[in-house]
Amino acid sequence: MILIIIFVILIIILIAEIFRYNRIKANAFSEAEVTRAAEEQARKIKYSDPMITCQYCGAKIDTSIDKLCRQCGGPYDDNPEWITRHDVKESFIEEGTAAIIAKREKKAQSETERIMKRIKKEIMAISIIMFFMIAMAAFGYYLYDQHRYQGNESVNSDRYRNFIPADYQIQGDGVIYDKDGVRITVTGVYVSESADSKVYDDDLRCTKLGFHVENKHGKNVSIAMKCSGVNGIFKQRSYIYTYDYFRKKADVTFYEELNHSPKDPVSELIFDYIEVNSIDYDYCGRIDKPVYLHTTVDKKDSIDFFDKKKIYSANDIEIYASFIREKYLFGYKLYIVNNSDIDFSLNNLELRMDGVPVKVERLQDALLPKGYIYETDRIRSYQLELPDMIGKNSQISVSFVDNETHLRDFSTGFMDVSELSK
Hints:
The protein is α+β, with helices and mostly antiparallel strands.
């Protein structure tokens, strides 16, 4: 920022110096001005002898005192002697003009040389700053470009945690995407060491997934991936969401944290969103349906509903609700149990408070696989604070879509959750 300010100031000074340089050059060689100055100088010439002889009577006339001849009263404005003394010749004016031009030219040359030296220094300073700024921009872009693209990583990227391979493996080849030369493979599951022991920070206990990306598409690409389902629980706030860039011909292994406790083995993963785009936006590929990945363990997670209220039960769907009162993490949460034999999508959610609709985050084709529990994020308006929601008559409505046939699409209608916030 300081360099930019200095650069702008130097540009302003340079413009002012160039303007001044041109002005001095123009004034030094103004012919009309120099001629007027020479004539003015000629008019100011004083003669040492103001006496002339009257052409009528021969008497002496003191022109510094008399306007007419004292002896005969004759005028002397046409006196040859008077005219000769006061008639400035062209040669005299030209000599005076040449002298003034030479004098002014010398002065202008000295001044312009001094200004030109300053201009050259300023141009040099501006050039150096511009070169430095361009070099810094190029270096910054180089660093950005280097860090923009995903490279090979180690599973242990910090000193506080040590990850080791889980004692179970991915079943099959682990491929979750393979289109148009881009292949994405889950290489394995890694857990933080001593996962069962109590550590001072639960956030340090987590699971990681290894990913291997091969880009033979022929262009640099971006890859967005979302894993929202693990072991029978599907979360609106995904277990993994990653967005990275990969160079063409990339053969890269990297690791992403899975928001899942390492003491609970991962038996099933659902990648509900994978999209690959070329950097020039000339290509876009995505999965047509969710990708299920299984491991060599068989386990299903569950949620304890003892502190949650059942607000709906029909169409093989059960819905439980709770209200979180934390200052910055407040709002309603729904736990939707799919006991049916088909996959549903949740495509709409509405909240009313005291009969007035409240704008909330929409559910865009959120997947509810059969046998899964869908856990929503906090349902609240970002325009309301916690006190604004407590004690209000609140109702929530959810719509379900049967993606296969649409024969079993339905809506719950508005379910009363008022007691939860009182």
